[in-house]
Specification:
Elements: H1 2-8, H2 15-35, H3 39-59, H4 63-83, H5 85-96, H6 99-126, E1 131-135, H7 142-146, E2 149-154, H8 157-164, E3 174-178, E4 181-187, H9 203-214, E5 218-222, E6 229-233, E7 236-238, H10 243-268
Parallel strand pairs: 1-3
Antiparallel strand pairs: 1-5, 2-4, 3-4, 5-6, 6-7
Helix pairs in contact: 3-4, 6-8, 6-10
């Protein structure tokens, strides 16, 4: 009962102690979640066995075993770096995508996403491949994402070109961009019922108009017949945009909108 008496004689736990325990618990949880299902999980189990053997050898006075473990632990750090360098890179990348750090890279990633969209639209237009790309802003597009084929992939022009190839099973429907990632493809959007629209507009243009009439999304449409690039916002379509015009419009509607939202959030939390 000596250990219990010693424990009860410790000073009371303060708020900083609770914060310390909470931070360590979150770190352990995130590490376990990150290594789950990877080779690092087996390494963690092996390390736990070594720690148990170390203390067990001290308790059982197994001096040779304890000496071997102590000498082996000196080089285990370098072995982990060499054997699990890919997992370490993935862990650091995961840390960099945390919400706190994402705030600092939001504008840069949005600029890169806009450039990928512009390049994809120009290539699709040159090849006269029909496409519709919806960009989520403040109003979520989850209902349409769940109705398509989930991707959750990094936004690149190569991916968009692959999606809209005529031989691709995903080319029918729209690709939806959410938080600088392609959330889903082959998503079916509601067609507008506006009777005043030109009869020249096909189903892609009508679907883009129908979507933006219901929320604040931005839609890019590439015509299969003419190869012209159009942008649809708030149910209004701008046809025949050039590449520079498309880039400028996306920066105004997406990049500046995010910057303004970020400033409002920073003011709100200060």
């Amino acid at each position: 009962m000596t250990w219990l008496t010693t424990f009860l004689r410790r000073p009371p736990i303060g708020w900083w102690d609770l914060a310390d325990i909470l931070v360590v618990s979150i770190l352990i949880y995130e590490v376990l979640k990150l290594i789950k299902g990877t080779r690092a999980m087996q390494m963690a189990v092996g390390a736990a066995v070594l720690v148990a053997m170390f203390y067990g050898s001290r308790w059982g006075r197994l001096d040779t075993v304890n000496w071997l473990i102590r000498n082996f632990l000196g080089s285990i750090v370098f072995a982990i770096i060499v054997l699990f360098q890919a997992d370490i890179r993935r862990a650091l990348a995961h840390l960099g995508r945390a919400p706190f750090f994402r705030y600092f890279t939001k504008e840069e990633s949005a600029e890169e996403s806009i450039e990928e969209l512009v390049v994809a639209a120009s290539l699709l237009s040159a090849q006269r491949i029909g496409a519709i790309i919806a960009i989520e802003r403040q109003v979520g597009l989850r209902n349409y994402i769940e109705g398509g084929i989930a991707l959750d992939a990094v936004l690149t022009y190569d991916l968009l070109l692959s999606i809209f190839q005529r031989t691709s099973p995903l080319h029918d429907g729209a690709a939806i961009v959410q938080n600088d990632r392609v959330a889903a493809a082959a998503c079916f959007l509601p067609l507008t019922i506006n009777p005043r629209l030109s009869k020249e507009l096909g189903s892609r243009h009508r679907a883009a108009i129908g979507l933006t009439e219901e929320n604040d999304a931005v839609a890019i449409v590439v015509s299969e017949e003419s190869g012209k690039v159009s942008m649809v916002v708030d149910g209004q379509i701008e046809r025949g945009l050039g590449i520079d015009e498309l880039r400028a419009r996306l920066r105004l509607l997406v990049l500046h909108r995010r910057a303004g939202q970020a400033r409002r959030e920073s003011v709100q939390y200060t």
